[in-house]
Amino acid sequence: MIQSIILVLAGLTFSTNPGANPHPWVKVNEDQGLVIWNRDIPGSKIRELKAVVVVDFPVEKIWAVIDDIEKYTEFMPYLEEVQVLEKEPNKVVAYHRLDAPLVSERDYTLLIESTPEPEKRHYFRSWKIAEGAGPQIKDGIVRVRVCDGSWTLKSVGPNKTHLTYFLHTHPGGSVPMWIANKANTVSLPALFEAITNRTRNSRWTR
């Protein structure tokens, strides 16, 4: 059950104003350089997550993978459908539908905004639920109501990138809060693995 709720993270896809939260971060996991923290959020039973890692890829290549929304179904776990509904420079509205074992399908529509600074080799992306956008709720598919987060990519060498990821999300439906919190934490390594595997795939081109 817990592993199947990894689907929420395919959106990947990050609280967008982490400095506004007074609660301290608590380290919950560290493995192969990936460090994960969580903390309470006032007024929410779902904890905010932060993950940090340095990967051995140029920042431009990692950014190209994260920015390639239309191809997320090729490598993101359990992501079955992505529809880009609106697209402007550095702003995208995209519908996501996910299908994982043991739970009903989930869907959500995100407003995704980016601030690329290629001259500084620094990239930032944040997202939140796009209220009122996307398809109507469908029978048999649970609508995710909470999905906020961000990516920060910073070059720390010719072939090294420092990644920081924030996430505050709930899979919706009848999933208990403690399972949702646990699932979000244990699923993060798979998300990072999917992105790094895509980056090292020599057959992938943007």
Description:
There is one protein chain. This protein has helices at residues 59-67, 177-200; strands at residues 26-31, 34-41, 44-55, 79-88, 91-98, 105-117, 122-129, 141-143, 146-157, 160-170. The chain has 206 residues and is α+β, with helices and mostly antiparallel strands. It has a single domain (3-200), classed as START domain (Alpha-D-Glucose-1,6-Bisphosphate, Chain A, domain 4, 2-Layer Sandwich). Strands 1, 2, 3, 4, 5, 6, 7, 8, 9 and 10 form a ten-stranded mixed sheet that branches. A hairpin with a 2-residue loop joins strand 9 and strand 10 (160-170). The chain is globular and about 50 Å long.
Total number of helices: 2
Taking all Cα atoms into account, the compactness measure Rg is: 16 Å
What form results from the Cα inertia axes? globular
Count up the domains.
1
The biggest sheet amounts to:
10 strands, mixed
As a percent range, the share of helical residues equals 10-25%
Could you name the CATH homologous superfamily? START domain
Q: What are the low-pLDDT stretches, counting only 5+ consecutive residues below 50?
A: 1-18
Q: Report the sheet-strand fraction.
A: 35-45%
Which class of secondary structure composition applies to the elements?
alpha+beta
So what's the CATH class? Alpha Beta
CATH level-3 fold name: Alpha-D-Glucose-1,6-Bisphosphate, Chain A, domain 4
What is the average per-residue confidence, as pLDDT, rounded to a whole number?
85
Number of strands: 10
CATH structural architecture:
2-Layer Sandwich
Q: Which sequence of SSEs, written as H and E, runs from N to C?
A: EEEHEEEEEEEH
The CA-CA distance between the termini, in Å, is: 34 Å
